[in-house]
Design brief:
The complex is a heterodimer.
Chain A lengths: L1 H12 L1 H25 L4 H12 L2 H12 L2 H19 L1 H30 L10 E7 L5 E2 L2 E2 H10 L3 E15 L4 E9 L3 H5 L5 E2 L4 H4 L6 E5 L1 H8 L9 E4 L2 E8 L15 E4 L6 E8 L5 H17 L10 H8 L2 E6 L6 H8 L3 H30 L1 H9 L4 H39 L13 H29 L1 H9 L8 H33 L9 E7 L9 H13 L4 E7 L9 E8 L5 E11 L3 H5 L3 E4 L13 E5 H8 L8 E3 L9 E7 L15 E4 L9 E7 L3 H15 L4 E7 H8 L1 H35 L1 H9 L4 H31 L14 H27 L3 H6 L2
Parallel strand pairs in A: 5-10, 7-9, 16-21, 18-20
Antiparallel strand pairs in A: 1-2, 1-11, 1-12, 3-11, 4-5, 4-8, 4-11, 6-9, 7-10, 8-9, 13-22, 13-23, 14-22, 15-16, 15-19, 17-20, 18-21, 19-20
Helix pairs in contact in A: 1-2, 2-3, 5-16, 6-14, 6-16, 6-17, 7-11, 14-17, 14-19, 14-25, 15-18, 16-17, 17-18, 19-25, 19-27, 19-28, 25-28, 27-28
Chain B lengths: L5 E2 L4 H10 L4 E2 H11 L4 E2 L2 H14 L2 E7 L5 E7 L1 H27 L1
Parallel strand pairs in B: 1-3
Antiparallel strand pairs in B: 2-5, 4-5
Classes of the chains: A alpha+beta, B alpha+beta.
Chain lengths: 885, 110
Amino acid sequence: MFSDFLFRLRGLFRRKRVEAELDEELRSHLEYEAEKYIKSGLSPEEARRRARIALGGVEQVKEECREARGVSLVESAAQDVSYAVRILRNRPVFAVVAVLTLALGIGANTAMFSVMDVMLLRALPVKNPQELVEFVRWDPRGAIMGNLPYEVFQHLRENTSVLSGIFAFTSDSRVFRAGVGSERSTVHEVSGSFFSTLGVNALLGRTIDPNDVLPNAEHHVVVLSYPFWSRRFGRDPSVVGATVRVNGAPCTIVGVMPADFFGVNRSRLPDMWAPLASDPGQVWVLGRLKPGVSIPQARAQLQPLFQQALDSFKDGMKDSRAQERDAFLAEKLLVNRATTGTSDLRWQFWEYSNTLKILLGMTGLVLLISCVNLTNLLMARSAARSQEIGIRLAIGAGRRRILRQLLTENLVLALLGGVVGLLVAAGGHRLLVTFLTGNLEGVSLEFRLDERVLGFSLAMSILTGLLSGVLPALRAAREGFLPAMHGIFQLRGAPRLPLARKLLAAQVALSLMLLVGAGLFVRSLRNLATTDLGLARENLVLMSVDPSLSKSVRDRREFWTQLTERLAGVPGVRSVSLAGDAVFGYGGWNAPIWARQPDGAEHDARVPYNVVGPGFFQTVEIPLLAGREFGWQDQGKSPPVAVVNRAFARRFFAGENPVGKRFGNAGPGSSSQIEIVGVIGDAKYRDLREQPQPMFYLPLFQNLEERPYQLHARTAGDPAAAIAAMRGEIQAMDQDISINHVRTIKEVIHSLLQHDRMFAFLASIFGLLALLLTSIGIYGVVAYQVTRRTGEIGIRMALGAQRTDVLWMVMRETLLVLAAGAALGLPAAVAAAQVLRSLLFGLGPSDPLAIILAAAALAAAGALAGFLPARRAASLSPMDALRHE
Amino acid sequence: MTDERIDLPQGTLNLLILRTVALGPQHGWAISERLQQISGKVLQVQQGSLYPALHRLERRGWIKARWGASENNRRAKFYELTGSGRKQLEAEADAWRKLTAAVAQVLETA
């Protein structure tokens, strides 16, 4: 075996020598042979001729010797590649169409892979990331919460023996000021064990250690992230040790982290890390398992500890509704592997949604279509090349050699497609991440051309090359000889391509699936974009105003009153009001309320609410149905009042006019506390998809707190000018009032529709490309058939067939393919669309209009693609057609 | 013109080559001449198929090649039997004898 290998190697590396020896051996044979004939009396020329005849074709003998030596594998592969490149260069249109087809299929899937890789698969750049676990709560009603009460974290930390480390962190937005100019920055507050458990060191200075987190820590410290350090300080190493202000408090920069460290969550990049405050509330918790400890073992120890910690809350929850307390106490601890960090993205896009799966399905369809399309192109071409292949078979090429040659051509195509596909992937990756997460800043999800992505794309290329190439190559090598030899003499023997028709039908079916998906998504997006919000969306501006850093604000009531009045006077502003939470913001708060039922019983329920200022409903234009809305008189000590929406009235007051009726939010027996003074229409408040739900509003000035409030302003015209004017007006009151998150409601809705737009956009793009590819496929196959049947068409015409008969004869082919494709594709599309149900708004997955539109588009494009060659066939003159052979 | 020569049965060429070079190192043309002579011109050995067969045997390690000078002092490639080639020759010759004896018996008795 080994000597055989060495023997082949010699052939490979000493190819020239081996070739020369082969030459010499055969030459010496011919000389001996000729000498023999000369001795028997022939002339030297005749002798040499006889010798050559006796040996047979010298080149053929040599080729057989090479094959016998087994050296030819690599060598012939190189030959095949150069031949393939030559062939492709001779057919540039075919090559370009094929490469682009593949680039699309491979690129789309590589983009999906790299997105999933960064979101779900890539490990954190920390020490032994596979030991990391995250802790989440699971409540018996099925909800999963990513964070734990800080006390639970403390209890776990102090009592566990299965973890070598455990840490907690929270995320917050703070005003950062260094020298002049302040800005909002994202601060992750971390427990003292954060950096040591992760096993990462600072690039400059030090990280945060347990001493920084002690309640009596002497001073505040922060550690900067590399991107923030670069952006804000131009990578100046002297900032370590500098004092800055975070939310006004002096802080020392003690370190800078390395460029690749972003914490434990790729989708929330902090600008800096700071020690955890003494009472942080809910925290995210991660830990590191001791070597050899499995997740079930860890959970077995930690679950009872978790339970103990929850029980200690029991006394503090006396006032809660029994149902809620029971649910809280029944919560279980889940321990998840966190090699890739905390699971925001995994949850959001994989475990609790179909987003990535649907995208995968779409790109998978695109790949299938690409493969089928390429198979078809290759079939038509190998049919056209059958003469060439026949000739090569006839002059002694082995069938296996031909097969290898054809597969090499496909692989060359596929690899070219893979290379172009990487460009598609890089662009597609950015597009997908932007669509999925809304932006590219603040996330560590960039495209990286690493060995994983390269490997994936290479594997895809080889797979598609083989998948789409095997059928045509096998057929060409099997059938190549006979039809081809016929073909030299009479064209009629060329294959009829029945397989091509089946493949076309499959392609039509796959395209139909994508187009139906596109139709559904586009119609759903349209429904969402035009859905009645219950409020007016034109020219509504939102901004968050935070006076907490301002020294001039003494009396909050006075400040907010003055702010509202001054802004109402700004040119271009029609009306202004305030709210605790913005419309389409976080959706207000949930509160348990108690309302007296018609039968006198007190009924309790959890209902979302918001606090709003005077004139709020008039500003956002939610119609007032009865009673009044809040005015300036609803403040301080005035009687508690509320405005409720129509759904609230329907739910708690059986649809009667609730004005003058009462409910409460202060526990059992409070049901007569708050008087309802007005009823407004139902408006969407959190999400465009929501059904009207009960909601109530309390007067902001009756519930004033020390916090930022959301300004709602209706402008007369273009919001941009009014926004600038309002900013100026607020700054004029006090420079230190910070204004954040300025946006119009249209922008908010636009970003709420991000994913819907992504699906509609991608499905449309893919659908259109599939349509194009299918049309090219139909055109190619029908045009080939027309060329093949030119003689037959001539005869038919000579025998009296009309042009319409010919047209119909050719079109019948196309229509059959389309009908078969539709018969196959429609049920498949309807079945596949079921998974989209939860993503669609205002229509079902079997929406007839979307299906009809998709089918019509495909039928029209397909019929056109078939009509062009059919018309050419019909316009042939019988004489030319007959002479064609 | 009637041709009495028969084509070689599959696989026998190897056996004949091995037997020929068992007599001593020989170059390709000499092997081909020798085969023609010994077989009494009954067997048809295509010169064209001799060389691929030689190279195949060389690859399997049953014969080895070296360049040397022929009788009239010309450079030629000489093939000689190797140890494993000798074993292979014995095995194949044995198999062949058994086969022909069996076929002959069938032809005579059946």
